[in-house]
Specification:
By secondary structure, this protein is mainly beta. Helices cover 0% and strands 41% of the residues.
């Protein structure tokens, strides 16, 4: 589980069908960056 994620698009501004295509570009767990594209 992540504390924070940054994704490559605004999920509120795209059609629901495109949400699956969103990619995580940064994930923070415990205050540390654990994934960065």
């Amino acid at each position: 589980m992540a504390d924070l994620i940054i994704i490559d698009r605004d999920l509120m501004a795209i059609p629901a069908e495109q949400i699956r295509e969103a990619k995580v570009i940064l994930r923070v767990v415990g205050g540390k960056v654990v994934y960065e594209e």
